Amino acid sequence: MEFIDILTERLNALLVSAVEHLPALGIAVTILVLTWVAAAVMARVLTRVLARTEPRESLRILLKKMANIGIWSAGLLIAVVVAFPSVTPGKLLSALGLGSIAIGFAFKDIFENFIAGMLILLREPFRIGDFVECEGIFGRVLDITVRDTRLRQVNGEAVTLPNAMLFKNPVQIQTHAELRRISIICGVAYHEDVDSCRAVIESAVTSCGSVSDDEPVQVFANEFADSSVNFEVAWWTESDPLSERRSRDEVISSVKSALDEEGIEIPFPYRTLTFNEPLSLHQAENNDQAEAA
Hints:
Helix Hairpins, elongated
């Protein structure tokens, strides 16, 4: 019976303590609700204010995230202090300081991506809509969050990259500028006049509608290949992948047609065999007679 009496006494004490703390818990819940309301109001206010100032999109996202984190951090701190009067702000901050070390080791990757995301949003090395490549992954930026960045590859597949990966590795931004330089190799036969070929190729490229008039078309004799003199042909066009492919198709077709019209040979690989002595055909003739018989 003593065990039951002790258990009953402890349960009664816990019940009394819970009842005594109900007002504090109620106030803490109210504070959390007010925190949620304050965060929602702040988000709307920031949306209106930022719409007037028109900052860049990444800075707008960063300011909203920081304001939301700040409001919720303050609200949770106040709610904990109210719900547990023995916990002072100083003790809570000390506990958070010690606990943050263990949490930092346990969630290293999460915090690393979070900080990298903040820096990417602040510095904005690339924007939503840009085509970027990192570690062999190429695609259009769909969204940038504080943890990761989503890309859509040219084949339609979506890829999510951790922000730490984009922050620590080189990122090639294809659409950073409106125009991009493209080059191809075009070969002509050795007996053709180099200057005439250069003029024909340059005229053909310049006539293409996808080639920018703001930058010069460049045609340079590049190398002596096995069967041809190769020209490097360079021009500027719009920087997105689809425009690049269309421009490359138009330029190659135009150059091919222009060279054909001028009778300039585009050689295919061939080999010239040289013999020191004349070849005898007697054996071949004997074989032909044997086959005929």
